[in-house]
Amino acid sequence: MIRRGFNLLELVIATAITAVLLTAVMVALSASFRAYRQTTESASTGVIGRIVMERIQGLIRNGQDFAPYPGTLASTVVDSNELDILRPDGTWVTLAWVPATQSLHWRENGENWVLLEGVTQQPSGTGSAIAPFALEFHRGRHLHRARIDLCVVPDDVQGMDIEGTSVSVLRLVGSAMPRAVAWDR
Q: Is the pLDDT of residue 157 over 60?
């Protein structure tokens, strides 16, 4: 007797194997898409953070005057959540970290814009927030150097269950000095 097809049991077994393989492929593909979204969000936050950092350093290099000033002549370093910069065109710009919204803001001419969200200012392993701006003055109110220290958390909406509850914090640190100070040396 010559068989020309499959019996019902062979078809059921083949269908079950195919279903298991397709389920495994779909789970792997779903995890891959989630990992791609998380990586993209983290990379996007890093790029945006570096652009914001470069812009702040450029403002400091070209700035004419800066605030807040030290409280006394003896104090030379001011840690602050805000940085006021007088630009060459005579306008003041304020960069401010708002702890309530965990965001960095740009204020100019009564207008307010969010520059960067997710700015926590709590580096890994520390319980207290650090000031995003440290201004070092000399000869009274002349800014010698400014340090910018931003701790940014990527958008956690894109997180994966497999990562657990740990959140990676991107820390951006830079410093700049006004060109007038740099060229006087």
A: no
Sign of CA dihedral 159, 165, 166, 172: positive
Return the structure tokens found at 160.
């994966």
- The CB density around residue 19, as the number of other CB atoms within 10 Å, is 10
Is residue 75 helix, strand or coil? Answer: coil
The structure's pTM equals 0.70
pLDDT at 132: 94
Cα distance between the two ends of the chain = 102
CB atoms within 10 A of CB 30: 10
Give the three-state DSSP class for 31. Answer: helix
Query: In DSSP terms, which residues pair with 84 in a beta bridge?
Result: 67, 94
Judge if the upstream peptide bond of residue 88 is cis by omega within 30 degrees of 0: no
Query: How far is residue 58's CA from residue 22's CA, in Å, rounded to a whole number?
Result: 53
Q: pLDDT tens across 39-82, in order?
A: 776 677 778 888 999 999 999 999 999 999 888 777 889 999 99
The full set of domain ranges for the chain reads 8-184
Name the amino acid, one letter, at 36.
Y
Structural contact between residues 160 and 35, judged by C-beta atoms closer than 8 angstroms: yes
User: How many CB atoms are located within 10 Å of the residue 25 CB?
Assistant: 10
Cβ atoms within 10 A of the Cβ of 58, count? 11
Question: Of 71, 109, 75, 79, whose CA–CA distance to 97 is shortest?
Answer: 79
